[in-house]
Specification:
Elements (H helix, E strand, L loop, with lengths): L12 H4 L12 H4 L4 H7 L6 E4 L6 H12 L2 E6 L5 H15 L5 E6 L6 H13 L3 E6 L3 H4 L2 H4 L3 E4 L5 H11 L9 E2 L1 H11 L3 H13 L5 E2 L5 H4 L11 H15 L3 H13 L4 H16 L5 H16 L3 H15 L5 H16 L14 H5 L41 H24 L4
Parallel strand pairs: 1-4, 1-5, 2-3, 3-4, 6-7
Helix pairs in contact: 5-6, 9-10, 10-11, 13-14, 13-15, 14-17, 15-16, 15-17, 16-17
């Protein structure tokens, strides 16, 4: 019987082709190549709790089943979407009975990140005692989604998308299974399916199965794949890891003065369905964090692009955001203001609520004037260049502190020169007061 004519006609091809040995497993060479610790643990039946973290269709479930197979352990699978503490208790009770016969129990939890903290805590004593070997599967970053107590009792293994070479090899290996039906497919068809699957082996096999069911004259033809493949579902998960990885890549490309790469990541996010207004907001952040006073026009360009998107929508708004991204990418860079504010905030936390010096306080009432509020304050506009040399605007314990250090790029070259001049005037005034005996 062909793989495409199963006894259970409702079981997807991907499920029927789950690997029965490590030799059949596709991808994840960084974990499963000969000599790698995880492969050795599986082959030797050395069980420990673990979390498999990776995109869909990368073999998380298959790997858990192989672990149970090699260790000759009981395999129990649940979904965190459908199960709760009650199911966990029932499985633990069963695991204790199995342990009485000298067998371990592997509890595989799909989408383990969907368990809340209380549900995750329910695992802890049983994992600690070794009653169950927990194997969790998640597409989300475990360090964000799982509590520390659970993470400390399990090893995290990162699974990667299946690369095109491995995926193509898998499909070519499957094709002989169609032999009894006489269905054929050339390399172009398999490559098209590989590209559309975007590293998801389950999706690739299911697309192949659908294409085989729709074969004309026992041949899967390239021109028939259009409606089957549809538009390739590029990976993008609003609010998930891939979302934040892509916005991070966009930001770093702008910071690194790489407009072409920045445009690519912008296009990827739009293609995945990201709200352009979110990207526009992040572009404003880039303008203030990474460009600042080196080119103050960058902030206005970013704000304008946000406004265009809000007023006109797409595609005009997207083009305006693209313009801003390119401008920011090639603009002079400075994070001096970003670092200055960060340091000032740290001093506020470290030093607490320092008193405002009396000469900087307003005196709206006669009583406050009599108490010395505002005394000896010098109004800057009454002085040459609207600058009072030697005046101190800090609390006394922070006198002379500097946070802002302009870089030697863009407009900050001129800002830095101006600050150097003003600071030299301050130093000269202090020296004059010192030599005259005022200090």
């Amino acid at each position: 019987m062909s793989l495409f004519e199963p006894e259970n006609q409702f079981q997807p091809l991907a499920a029927r082709l789950r690997p029965e040995s490590l030799a059949d497993f596709v991808g994840q060479a960084h974990l499963l190549a000969p000599g790698k610790p995880l492969r050795q643990a599986i082959e030797n039946g050395q069980l420990h709790s673990m979390i498999f973290w990776g995109p869909p269709g990368t073999g998380k479930t298959s790997l858990a089943r192989l672990l149970a197979h090699y260790a000759e352990a009981e395999f129990v699978s649940i979904s965190a979407v459908l199960s709760g503490v009650k199911e966990i208790r029932n499985i633990v009770a069963m695991a204790k009975q199995v342990a009485g016969h000298g067998r371990k129990t592997i509890l595989f939890v799909d989408e383990v990140h969907r368990f809340n903290k209380g549900q995750q805590d329910a695992f802890l004593p049983h994992v600690e005692e070794g009653t169950i070997i927990l194997v969790g599967a998640t597409t989300e970053n475990p360090s964000f989604e799982l509590n520390n107590a659970l993470l400390s009792r399990a090893r995290v293994y990162r699974l990667h998308s299946i690369d095109e070479e491995d995926m193509l090899g898998l499909l070519q290996r499957v094709m002989p299974g169609i032999g009894e039906t006489g269905i054929k497919a050339d390399i172009g068809v398999l490559k098209a399916i590989t590209t559309s699957a975007q590293g998801d082996a389950r999706l690739a096999l299911n697309l192949l199965e659908i294409a085989a069911d729709s074969a004309v004259d026992d041949t899967i033809k390239l021109d028939q794949l259009g409606p089957i493949l549809g538009e390739s579902a590029r990976r993008f998960d609003q609010g998930g890891d891939l979302f934040y990885e892509q916005i991070s890549a966009l930001h770093k490309a702008v910071r690194g003065s790489a407009p072409d790469a920045a445009l690519y990541w912008f296009a990827r996010m739009l293609d995945g369905g990201c709200d352009p207004l979110y990207i526009a907001r992040r572009v404003v952040r880039m303008a203030t964090e990474d460009i600042g006073n080196a080119d103050p026009r960058a902030l206005q360009v970013a704000l304008n692009s946000w406004d265009v998107q809000r007023r006109l929508g797409s595609p005009e708004g997207e083009l305006a955001i693209a313009q801003a991204i390119v401008y920011l990418s090639v603009a002079a860079k400075s994070n001096a203001v970003y670092l200055a504010l960060k340091q000032a905030k740290e001093d506020v936390i470290k030093l607490g609520s320092l008193e405002v010096p009396m000469h900087l306080r307003n005196a709206p009432t006669q009583m406050m004037t009599d108490m010395g509020y505002g005394e000896e304050y010098q109004y800057a506009h009454d002085h040459e260049d609207a600058f009072v040399a030697g005046e101190d605007y800090f609390p006394e314990s922070l006198s002379g502190q500097q946070y802002y250090f302009p870089v030697d790029r863009g407009l900050e070259v001129k800002i830095g020169a101006k600050l150097s001049y003003l600071r030299s005037q301050n130093d000269g005034s202090k020296m004059k007061r010192y030599t005259s005996g005022e200090e």
